[in-house]
Amino acid sequence: MKAKKVFWGVILALAMIVVAGGTCFIVMHFFSDNDSQQFKSTSGPTGGPLGENHNIDWNKLHKRNTDAYSWVYVPGTKIDHVVVQPSKHKDDLYYLNKNLDKEYEFAGTIFSEKLNKKDYSDPVTVLYGHNMINGGMFATLHKFKNPKFFKKHKKMYVYQPHRKLTYKIYSAYTYDDRHIMNSFDFSDSKVLKKYQKMTLKPKAFDRNVRKKTKLDLNSKILTLSTCTNGASNTRYLVQGVLIKDEQTN
Question: Residue 73 and which of 12, 17, 106, 160 are 20 to 30 A apart at CA?
Answer without folding.
Answer: 106
